[in-house]
Amino acid sequence: MLDQQHPSLPQGLHDDNVYNLGKIGPHNVVIACLPAGQMGNSSAATVASQMRLTFPAIRFGPMVGIGGGAPSSEKQIALGDVVVSRPGKNDGGVIQYDFGRTVAEGRFVRSGTLNDPPAVLLNAVSALQAKHKLSGHELAKSLSVFDSPALKSAYTYQGWENDMLFEASYDHVGSAPACERCDRSRLVPRRVRSTDPTIHYGTIASGNQVMRHGESRERWRKEADVLCFEMEAAGLMNNFPCIVIRGICDYADSHKNKRWQEYAAATAAAYAKELLLVVPGSTANPATCREAKADQGNVVFVDLLTLSVPM
């Protein structure tokens, strides 16, 4: 996804991250992944705080990864689609659905608020939406880098026949991850869609546990207009200027499996690249990542793109 790659840089003793450095359009970019096997809001917050020690002039960060979709008749979200956090009437685009208190009759009440994405990214989202309405998105252009034989099987569209949305009340049958034993009569009827991913904007629900229960997914979809569930964003929103971009790899129910994860991660990264290309570059003198780190006195900015590992 990078237009150019830059050499690695020395890091402090207290920064355990591994970075890929490069350029997308006019922006110097730092890419970091969550540690293997570690998920959740605290892990994401640790990665971001260590990153800012090494790159203190970071301007903002699209947080890119995968999530579980919450489709409805109004929002026909499918596997491989992209969901982007956008502020609504009652939230900043991300809610922490597992943070709150239990009140009378065992009812859970969510509490606390999370910050909106920075204005520069929200303005870029508006500009990109307008561009897409006129001429469509260009995700396929970025996804073409995965056309090599070694990558194509995992990082390309996985087929409508493998995109199965079951009724929310119907649980997965058996211990195997695939749905061979599941009752196809319990599939939700949907019209066949284009293989091109669709981009959706709205509320993303973040928590410290994997959502894999269809009825709970539906409750949050109806109560908070949630489009997607994930596990890292709430750890960043109040401490880091970011927007959340998620490729949909499952439907946040018990039928969850890993088949779509790589393709979903790729579609989210492709959207992040398109978004960065409409964000104006820094007004400071151009610099490589190495110069940006060394020359903080000239306020040379480094932009951030974080990619989280599949769940």
- Please report the distance between the alpha carbons of the first and last residues: 21 Å
Q: Give the structural class.
A: alpha/beta
The total beta strand count reads 12
DSSP summary: helix tally: 7
Q: Give the H and E element order.
A: EEEHEEEEEHHHEHEEHHE
Largest sheet: 5 strands, mixed, barrel
The shape is globular
Percent helix: 25-40%
Q: From the alpha carbons, calculate the radius of gyration and give it in angstroms.
A: 20 Å
Low-confidence stretches: 284-292, 294-301
Spatial order of the strands forming the largest sheet = 4-10-9-5-11
Whole-number mean pLDDT: 86
Beta-strand proportion: 15-25%
Can you walk me through this structure?
The strands form 2 sheets. This protein has a 5-stranded mixed beta barrel with strand order 4-10-9-5-11. Strands 7-8 form a two-stranded antiparallel sheet. The two termini are 21 Å apart. 25% of the residues lie in helices and 21% in strands. With 311 residues, the chain is α/β, with parallel strands linked by helices. Residues 284-292 and 294-301 have low confidence and may be disordered.
